[in-house]
């Protein structure tokens, strides 16, 4: 399993901890990713709710963001540990678990959160190289999650997972 740590030095203050589950869905050399009006690409997924397992969160988030149901058993292929400046607290500590998985062909209507709808979240099929290049071209300081997504994409490509 791939493990990535992103830590910004010299952070102090209140800490908000979060755990997330994200899907790595590959078909014919392309990944199913979420494209936003900012021009970035992210793995579908999101935060684990209280009392929810990683797999249950993955299943829920995939249906909400891609309209597709998870098929079979997902395989955890990577985890990214982040410690960076936060929005709801001084520091965000987040563990993002990435699962190689399959989804059904049929698409249900998306069930996006308000902020996701405002950013025009849209599921798209894109090559890993194109997604990484598009994200690298954007402002990582303004969009700190981009660094995580680029590093995970590059690690998955390097390991031959995608």
Automatic annotation (TrEMBL):
Query: What does the record give as cofactor?
Result: Mg(2+)
Matching SUPFAM superfamilies, A to Z? Answer: Nudix (SSF55811)
Q: Which domain of life is it from?
A: Bacteria
| A Pfam family assignment | NUDIX
| Keyword tags | Hydrolase
Annotated Nudix hydrolase domain residues: 16-148
Entry keyword annotation includes Hydrolase: yes
InterPro entries associated with the record: Nudix_hydrolase, NUDIX_hydrolase-like_dom_sf, NUDIX_hydrolase_CS, NUDIX_hydrolase_dom
Gene Ontology MF terms in the entry = hydrolase activity
> What protein family is recorded?
Belongs to the Nudix hydrolase family.
Q: What is this protein called?
A: NUDIX domain-containing protein
The organism of origin for this protein: Acutalibacter muris
